[in-house]
Structure formats: C-alpha cells, structure tokens
Known about the structure:
Blueprint: E1 2-5, E2 12-15, E3 18-21, E4 24-27, H1 32-37, E5 46-53, E6 57-63, E7 70-76, E8 78-85, E9 96-102, E10 107-111, E11 115-121, E12 125-132, E13 141-143, H2 167-170
Antiparallel strand pairs: 1-2, 2-10, 3-4, 5-12, 6-11, 6-13, 7-10, 7-12, 8-9, 8-11
Amino acid sequence: MQIVPTTLPGVLIVESRVFSDDRGFFNEVFVASKFRELGLPTQFVQDNCSRSIRHTLRGLHYQVTAPQGKLVRASAGRIFDVAVDIRRHSPTFGKWFGTTLEAGDGRQLWIPPEFAHGFLVLSDEADVSYKCTTEYDHPADRSLAWDDPAIGIQWPITVGVTPLLSPKDSVAPRLETADLFA
C-alpha cells in the first residue's frame, strides 16, 4: 500500500496492489498494520455501503459534531469522488479535490474529519463502500450545495443531464450560509 498526496492537505489517495487473472481480481482494502505505517487511522467504528444509479449525486455531506473521517472506495461501478475543505480557519477553506474511483482499481480516498464528501455515479450502477471514524449522528448531519459556485466543483456531468439528488441535497445551503467548522 502507498499513499498519494492530493491538492488538499490530509486528503489522500490510498493505492494498493490488485492481483488479477482470468477469474477476476483480489485486493487488500484495509490492513491495520499497513495503515498505521502510512499514518492513516486504524480505528473505524462504522462501515457504510450505498447503491446508486447513473447520474446520482450524493452530497456534499458532513457532521458538525463528531465529524467523520471516511475511507471511500467503489466496490462496484465507477464514481467521481469529492472532498471539500469546510474548516473556516484553513488556508484551503472552500477548495475541493476530486478523483475517479472504480471497482477493482485498488484506489481509495481518505477524507479527514471536517471535510464535506460527495460523489457522482459515472457507471450504470455503483456500490460505494466507506469506513467511518465516528458513528452517524443524525442531529449533526449536514449537507452543502453540490453546485455552489463559491466552491466550483467541476463535476463530470453529461451535458443536458440533471443529477439525481435526494430531497435534502436539493435544498442544501451554500458555503456562505452553511453550518461549518470554526
């Protein structure tokens, strides 16, 4: 396993070797000792999985209390995964990083606590699995507008297609009015 830095300090791509043959592939997704050596968390308290269809956009999500660090991967299909720095004190406040994750590519995205997270499904269907460092806390759950021009995420959305959003995400506030971290 190795880590690849991104344009946002703390947001990392975790790459691990994929062993492929005619039968399919094998990939070690999480090995505590290797994560520890790389300076990544080894204590995760919740695993989540979602299935979504093409053009579904989930996010940008975060928790204002008990913020979650997330280790995200596509376990089926292909997604464009995004992290946004929402720490007002940070020199990269409001900046984003995005990357494509595809089942079997051996890549995961580590998103530290106090970052918003979202993804767009690029394949017909995608399963997204992610490990969290804290449990889900419904009262602390927040969403940030996926299309906020102050952030300017360059989502790879097909021209003429409107992303499929949850009711919560369709009315999410913009960065300037959102409940964020100091």
